[in-house]
Please model this.
Amino acid sequence: MYECPWCGRKSFSFWQKQSLGPSRSIACGHCARRVSVPWGRAHLAAIPVFAGALVGLWFLGDAFNSKVVALAGGFIGLAVGMVLTMPLYHRFVPLVKPARP
Ligand SMILES: [Zn+2]
Model:
């Protein structure tokens, strides 16, 4: 569970935070005020997803010289990237009071 930056109580689950992006906010179950994640750190943590997808698309597609394999590689890269991003999101992206209310 994660602490609310407003009231300090643990009110957010792992999956609530994973689904949260810098352009989204969710309401605290205790104080009803909204929390978000900081733009910069959320994007840094998401880099493995994009990198994984690109690496899968390019290298697997090139290696097998096939668009179907490239597409499959892209999806595999995306999945691997997400697995890498989840712990990054968990550890390095704090919950914050949103810049815009
Ligand atoms: Zn709260």
